[in-house]
Amino acid sequence: MRPSYLLATSKSCLILHRLVAKTSLTSPPWPEVKLPDPVEEAKYHAEVVQKVNKMIAMGQYGRLFAVVHFASKQWKITGEDLIMMDNVLEAECGDRIRMEKVLLVGADDFTLIGRPLLGKDLVRVEATVIEKTESWPKINMRFRKRHNYQRKKSKMQRIQSFLPCCSVVRSGRGRYRDTRATPGGGHSFTISPGPLMAQHLFPRSLPPVCPLYLEHSDLIFPWSSTLC
């Protein structure tokens, strides 16, 4: 008797499961997400890579910008921008520093996105310390009425200014190569370094600003609709 009872119970549960109404609890109200076809996605990626290679070969990538993490903040910078920070830095005026934490580098029609950072051999963003000044005095006054208590403290912070450069000086050939299908391979995006520029924008005592160099990338994302 017991095996037949278990069999009947399992059949009744199966019948009840088929008669469950379709509600928001049994199925979500939004439509089912359809993943893109891998073949079409690979074809689209190949077209984007081909267009990017063509722009690099012709030098039509325009002016670059970068998003860097510096002094506990994220900065969106481009060529000849100024960064003003309150943190203490050991570099002196005229020294050139390198910003190694680069999150993103973009152009007119494509963007290199880090995961989360771009490699040091991928992009090079340098800045020149042009000024180190002190801020206005910040006075902290403590006073207690009818207690002959008065304390006064003044504090001055150092303000440091930097001039990053994200301009690319291209001399030679650059190429983006997709090697996602190769085990252990990575993307490559090469722009050979060129001469230093913008020497006439700063005093002669300061070194010229170093341009931005791109070596290879982990991801290319089309920025404009021309690549779609």
TrEMBL record:
Organism this protein belongs to: Buteo japonicus
Matching InterPro entries: bL21-like, bL21-like_sf
PANTHER family: 50S RIBOSOMAL PROTEIN L21, LARGE RIBOSOMAL SUBUNIT PROTEIN BL21M
Record SUPFAM superfamilies: L21p-like
Gene Ontology MF, one: structural constituent of ribosome
Pfam families hit by this protein: Ribosomal_L21p
Family from the record: Belongs to the bacterial ribosomal protein bL21 family.
GO cellular component terms, semicolon-separated: mitochondrial large ribosomal subunit
Protein name: Large ribosomal subunit protein bL21m
